[in-house]
Amino acid sequence: MTELTSQDYKWFVVHTQTGKEFAAKKSLENRTREENVTGIKEIVVPVYHETVYKNGKKTKIEKKSFPGYICIQMIMDVALKNFVKETPYITNFLVQGTGEPVALSKSEINAIVSKGQEEATEIVSMQIDFDVGQKVLIVDGPFNNFSGTVTAVFPDKGKVNVNIEIFGRETPVEIDYYKVKKN
User: Could you give phi then psi for residue 164, rounded to 5 degrees?
Assistant: First the structure.
């Protein structure tokens, strides 16, 4: 039997049931281990991290870069191809016109995998779920603990206008939406 080298392993994209990418990965890893299958080196669910502000709190969440797909570094042969396709949650390989799976180039797989490892480019998602007329509480800044009513929402700027009462008078203030929570 010939010795396998890292050059024998190629990266392939596999289509999974949407939302079941991690289940497909785990299922394939378990089957590979239980059935003592060689020829699969690595399985990756491409993800990236996104910072989201919701109800005034900053949280980091993990999102799939390519929902419905995972990447597998493996040796392509008929038996292994069928083994992968018979795994729960996996539907098929990504194929070209010939119907045969196409290996990714090094630059393609590096671009896919490194996207999730980029920490320098933090993505901030603004989920503004405030409506005009809604009662809110300011949770940060100079107007901390003031209650007020939303008078305008500016999703493109990530701000809301809130009327608060200062010295007995209604005063409009423009504030970052993540510094406000529903009252």
Answer: -120, 160
